[in-house]
Each structure stands twice: as structure tokens, then as C-alpha cells.
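INPUT
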Amino acid sequence: MGLAHTALNQGDELPKRAEGFAPATVSLDSLDAGTPARVLSVRGEGAVARRLMEMGVVPGAPVRVIKAAPLGDPLEVRVRNYHLALRRSEARTITVVVCDK
Amino acid sequence: MSTILESPPQTDSPAGGGTGPEARQLVVALAGNPNAGKTSIFNALTGLRQKVANYPGVTVERKEGVWPLGADLPPARLVDLPGLYSLEAASIDEEIARDLLTGRVEGVPEPDVIVAVVDATNLERNLYLVTQLLEAGRPVVIALSMVDLAERAKLEVDPDRLGLALGLKVVPVTAKQRRGLDELARAVVEAVDQRAPAAKWRLSPGAEEEVRRLYAAGAASREEALHDLYSETLPEDAERRAAVEEARARLSVADPRWWQEPLTARYRWIEQATEGAVRGARGERPGATERIDRVVTHKFLGPLVLLLVMAVVFQAIFSWAALPMELIDHGFGALGESVRAQMPAGLLTDLVVDGVVAGVGGVLVFLPQILLLFFFVALLEDSGYMSRAAFLMDRLMRGVGLHGKAFMPLLSSFACAIPGIMATRTIENPKDRLATILIAPFMSCSARLPVYTLMIAAFFSDVKVFGFLSVGALLILSMYLLGVVVAIVVAWILKHTILKSPPPPLILELPPYRVPNLLNVVQTMRNRSWLFVKRAGTVILTISILLWAMMTFPRSAEKPVPDAEEGAAVQAMRETGTESRGEPAPLTAKDAGETADEGAQLQQSYAGRLGRLIEPVIEPLGFDWKMGIGLVASFAAREVLVSTLSIVYNVGKDSDAESPSLIEAVRNARRPDGRPAWTPLVAVSMMVFFVLACQCMSTVAIVRRETNSWRWPLFMVAYMLVIAYAASFVTYQGGRLLGLD
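OUTPUT
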């Protein structure tokens, strides 16, 4: 699992693994707006995690934070080819790998 | 008649070569993600030949239409599934969809073909549902929607290559230009009797191995083995259950998140299938949406835009609806009069006029507001703005334990709680939905305005503070605020007690903005409004007949004894009218005598007796028994207070909140000891009571329908009554302590 099947068909660049450096992994809620990334894992359990994955947030999926709502929460996130609003508490359960520009 | 199948089946299905089906009505299910363009396609296929109802026991809209497949074919029954992302989760929508696909909904046979609407601009997530639809075992045809938008976004989807990769027929459809509709019909007819292609996606080797083992150990099919392995419920059979548990244990050793495998595997397969079929910039969505959102969800501008949108909606609801409402009101008044003129005077006529005609009028008078509100709600939904409003408001709403989606229903309730409560259907979690329903009537609806208007006109009309601020306006504003504050407190309490549940997650799609399709909007408005008339109508009619009876019986031939407590003006009117009792009053003109009769009749009716009975209870709120009659009557609808007070004070029941005679009568009303019955403090106490009490049988009726039991509407009436009583009590007694009386 993991990045093994990160859909090379996506046309985006895969995170480059520079010698000696692990790719930067962060949780989605601390990903800077505008930074392209890919989902590494969904750590949640139960209905919420399932729904997230049904909506396409599965390992390998391209994600990018667009912006936060006026009160700082929820976040607008671009997943695959559409935009999704989710709270920081949910975003925290998603680990992403930052794609190098 | 010709047979449906004209070309031989194209699959290698062994059953394919058998006898073709006789011409019969096909049942076609229409499925797709929310915002995938399903409604447009449904409307394009069925036109006006559609009907909307509810699935028994739940509030999911059931839409069905007639789809003319072609000249020599009988039209198909097109059953619209609720918009969904998945068939697996446990929401009502998804349950209904599953039942429909497997023929478990009464009156709807198992569909012959499933048409899956797939948004070309968002293929991957849309195809996720398709991977599940395939497992229903029915042939699936894909209607590829939003092709024009995809083109505009420089995204090219090759329907044939996609179809080949999926093993399904893919038909591009543009509902607006009616492109592809015939091809879709042909594809559906061809697909009948073809077997659904088996699911092609595969789990990881380890997981596949476990599925094979379960299949070998007694599951009926690979699908069942897969279901057993990953479903939240275990099979009942002890042996199979043990096998499943062992398999899960083995899988979880290798991967603690083993349960995610089918979800990941489906997307893996989707990515492969779309790989060759999609070309172009998959990166960005149409730039327009991005640009609009730069303003609409902007930190500062976003809330301003929301405020502006709301202002427009409210302005429209209050000003545009006023004229048709008045027309309906007068129309029913005139209808009642002409019925009265045609029929012989007597109880039956009274029942028809005051019970039935007035009752039907009482339902229909809300229709303009409800139509307008539903129009705007449909417009905002269709354009994509609604989910932005939820996005903006979620943080605030979560503060009281509610969902961002509760914002619009609550806002709608400021016009009328009925469409507001009906709009809570978008909230998935039943407890959050119920909490929203239970607080919706606290929003000051338009039916409270006549009450506020009367109270302010009688006691605060020219009162100003600081020389320019009108006390009346301030009072109305405070009443709105009072409703909101109490709603917040109650929501918080409900969510921490009887409706305790973890804060609802927000996983909300922000769809691209689209120019709303006026046909869709009008259809939605029409359908929902009709549901309201049908649903609320029967209950409201029953209750209004009941109320009429309470205000009419027992009838007494005795002349009412004029009591000295009446105000002088009223007294004079009453005296002129006492002799007309017993003989039919002239029907053409409303003279003082008749109104006096009405007042006398009301006083000794059950409603009047009830008013006297509750007088000791409402005394601490500052109300006398005449106001008690008004309170009893206004449980039908708040604005009834005005007409009831007119009858009680003998100024003619057709007075409205601004009629000088009623205002005079209210000012002059006296208690037995000669003190004025109303004071400014009593008026405020009355307004507070009307903000907080659930005096609206339409709301009760709609909550009964939406929750499918009497438990919640009765609970709502009871708790709101308690709160209203307490608040009025505090207002009146507190005011007296402060010497304001």
C-alpha cells in the first residue's frame, strides 16, 4: 500500500526522494495553502474515515489546501478534481506527503 | 406491439439468446452523485411527466417520472434515486437507494437497468458510486454529464475508451441542449437483459486470498464473501462468523488499516480505467468558480455577501409575498361570504365558512411565502451557493453543536418554520436534524408580525428613545434576538442531553458554480410546495374545524349578560346588539349587533370557558381571561390572536392589526376592578410569549410528518410552552418589581 500505487496516470509529479531525505509528511490541517501534496494515509476510524475515503481521499490521491473559512475552520481542500470542505479535526487524521514543486 | 429487444445482446451472457421479453414497461433507476447533473437529466427525460412523494416512514423525496423511450416502445418508469456518494454508509438516503436497487421498496419493482449519471469534470469520485452500482447485479449504462463544462476546462473525455475500460456503455448527455437523450434511450433498451459485468477491481493479493477462502468456506458468491469480510455487521451463521473473524485477524496483523483496502482498491481501478480515456488539464477546475470563491468565501467579503444574499431573500419574501397573501386572504374571505349568502344560515354554513373555507385559506395564505422561499432555496442550491453558506457558517453553528448545514433551514425559518423544517433534510445525522427542527420555531416567523404590530401600535407607536430611535423597532429587533438567543441555548442543552451525539463531521462538497437551470428550480419549488400543501393541509384542516367547534359550542340561546367591566366604547356597541340574538342577523352587512353576538358566543363557548379556566394560570403573566381566549385560539396560528381579540372586544373579526377600532379597544379594555387590562408591560409580556411558544398547527403538522411520530411535535409544543411561560413570567413580574407596570 502506501505510495506503491500512487497513480502515475495522474500526470502530476511524484514526490522526489532526494538522497538521504525522507519526503516531508504533514497532517493535512498543517499543510500550507496552495502546496500540492498526496495522501499518505487516513488514520481515522469508523464512519468519518470511511466517508472521507469514499469521497476519494485515499492513499495516493492528490490534495491541496485552498483556504480556511473566515473563522479559521473548516478548510477548503481540493481532492482529485473537486473541492471539499472539511474541519480541521478531520483534516488532522489525514497524513500527506508534500510534492516538490 | 414490438418487442423491446431489437438487436441481439452483445455480451457473452449465456441467457442472452433466449426469448426476448414481451413489450412491457421497463423500470429504470437513475443514480448519481449530488451535483452530478442528475436532476437536469431527470427533468430532460421526463419533462412534466413526473411525480414526487415520500418514501413511507422517511422524508426522502421519492421522484418518479415517465420516460418515452421511442416511438414503438412503451415508455419506461424512471425512478430517481436520492443523490449519493456511496451505497455503503448508513444514511437514510443510501438505505433507500439500496432498497430501490434490490426491489425492496413497495410498488417499485427491481430496476431493469440502472442509469448512472457521471460528471465528466469529476470522473474519479463519480465512478466510485458506479463500482458499487455494478454490484447490484443489474445492467448499468453511464450518462456522462457536464461534457460541455469539461470541454471548457480543456478536459477531454473519450466516452468510447472510457466505456471500454469500464465495460459499460458511456453516453455523453447535455440536458440543456437535449443532446444524447435518444442515444441514452437506445443504450438502455439495448442493455436490458444483458448481465451486469462483474466487478473488475481487485483487492491486494493478501485480501483477495482471504475472500477466496471465505468463498470456499460457504459464502454464496465472491460478492458475499467480500461483503462478509468488510461489512460492519458479521454474518449470523456461527461458522461463517468465525471464519470472517479469523480472516480479519490475519489481515489486521499485516495492516492495521486493513478495512480500507476495498475503498483504496476501487479507486485504484478507477484510476486505471480513466487513465487512457481522459486527456488535457486535469489540474484546475473552471476558473470562474475559483474567481467567484475568491470573493464569496473571502475572509471579510464572504460574510458580507452572505448578509446581502439573505437581505435580498428576506426582502423578497416579505414584500413580494405580501400582495398575493392579501389576495388569497381576501379571496377566501369573499368565498366564505358568498358561501354564506348561498347557503341557509345555520350550523352547517358556519362549519363550511368558518371551519373549512377559513381552514383551507389558512393553509394557502402561506403559500406565496413558501413558494418564494423554496424558489430561493432551490436557486441557491442549484447555483452551488448553499454549500458555501454552510462552509462560512459551520464554525459558528458548531459552537452550539449543530452542523453548518443547519444554517439555511434556521434562516428560512425567519420567514416561516415550515419550509425551514422541510429544508433540514439535507442534514444527515438524525439527531442533528432533530435538534435543528426543534429550535427552528424560535426564529421569529412572519406570522408573529401581526401580533408585534398590534402591540406596538397600541402602546409604543410614538415612543422614541434618544429622540430618534423608535421603541417599536427596538422591541421588534429584541424579539428577533430573543428567539435566536433562546434557540442557541436550547440547541446547546438538547445536544448535551437527550440528543447527545458527537459533533457532526463536516465533509461537504463545494461544487463548481453553475448558472441555475430555471426549469429545475421551478420544478423543485413546485414539488416541495405541493408536498407542503398535501402534508400540512389535512392536519391543519382538521385542527381548524376543531377550533371552530371549540369557539362555537355550546351554543346558547340566552342573552349574554353585559358586564360592567367592558370599556365604554365596546359597551355601547354591545348594547345596540343585544336584541338581535336568536334571530338570524342580516347577512349582507356586518353591523355592531352581529359582532357583539360573536363576542358573546365566543365568551361562553368551550374556548371562552377554557380562557376563564386558564386565567389563574396566565394571571402571573399579566393576562386576563379574554387574552386567554386569544392564546387558546392562536395555538392554531399566531396571527389568529388579532382576529380573536377583535371578536372578544366586539370590534368585528375582520379587523387587522392596524385597525384603529381594535387598537382603541385594546387600549380601553378594563379588568373587573377597573384597571386597564393591557399595559405596555402586558404587551411586552405578550410579545415575549409569542416569540417563544409554538403556536402554529402547521409547524406541529410538519414536524409530525418529518419525524414520523407524534412524540417530537408534542415534546416541542410542551417545552416551548414551558419556556414561553417562564420568560413571560420573568418579564411581567420582573417589570412589576422594577415598577414598570
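end of record. Chain A touches chain B through 45 residues (CB under 8 Å).
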